[in-house]
Amino acid sequence: xxxxxxxxxxxxxxxxxxxxxxxxxxxxxxxxxxxxxxxxxxxxxxxxxxxxxxxxxxxxxxxxxxxxxxxxxxxxxxxxxxxxxxxxxxxxxxxxxxxxxxxxxxxxxxxxxxxxxxxxxxxxxxxxxxxxxxxxxxxxxxxxxxxxxxxxxxxxxxxxxxxxxxxxxxxxxxxxxxxxxxxxxxxxxxxxxxxxxxxxxxxxxxxxxxxxxxxxxxxxxxxxxxxxxxxxxxxxxxxxxxxxxxxxxxxxxxxxxxxxxxxxxxxxx
Length: 269
Ligand code: ATP
Ligand code: MG
Prior knowledge:
There is one protein chain. This protein is an alpha+beta fold and 269 residues long. 37% of the residues lie in helices and 16% in strands. It has eleven helices and seven strands. The structure holds adenosine-5'-triphosphate and magnesium ion (MG). This is Mitogen-activated protein kinase kinase 9. Keywords: Kinase, Transferase.
């Protein structure tokens, strides 16, 4: 239906990431609201059409819907997405404080259903974190940027910036020298576990609150220390749930999305 950027009116900037800028836009004809992510890719390295198709064909209530993709000869790529009117969980926690176990249970179920949907289609996210979990006023939580990290990586191939936010990367991914290849599905589960822990604690759990997230500190905390555990005030089921996500050493011991969906923390609630 929407076949040109000229049909859209930019209303405001919703946020900025490594990959580009996200705008709130309105379709002039229908007044429908959308989010538009605008990225600048290198000239001559257009995004892979197959990847773009995967993005367009994804259809799950737990994944932010991607409606349309526009590319310009200059290398600018714009992705028209479903607008999530309550923003990201990162912003939500920053403004309203940490989340209760009950709410994390509800959120985890939705995020894991989204991960299960994509993982069963052999697609990994690679950048699960609070900023990529979006909510709307119906309290639906959806995963943003699925499939996009791969597109960005292709676009930015010349730069050395690794795709994915280091703080949420699994030990085997940070410490590539030691582990070589890594299992992207298990790595997503690690990032999911860190994210749920952060939403509960109110701060990134691997560092002291306020500590600089520089590379040496992160390496030390993620690769060489025991994974952090939840405080005593949390329930035993919740603590075990997080332990299942943060299995170190052998990533194949980490639970899968479908296993976690039947973990007592979610199944008994
Ligand atoms: P990264 O570049 O590592 O993905 P990021 O997720 O913060 O980091 P963007 O994906 O560019 O960067 O998104 C920037 C911000 O825009 C997000 O943090 C979120 O607050 C907001 N945002 C993104 N997509 C939407 C959307 N569909 N609806 C509403 N807000 C959105
Ligand atoms: Mg994002």
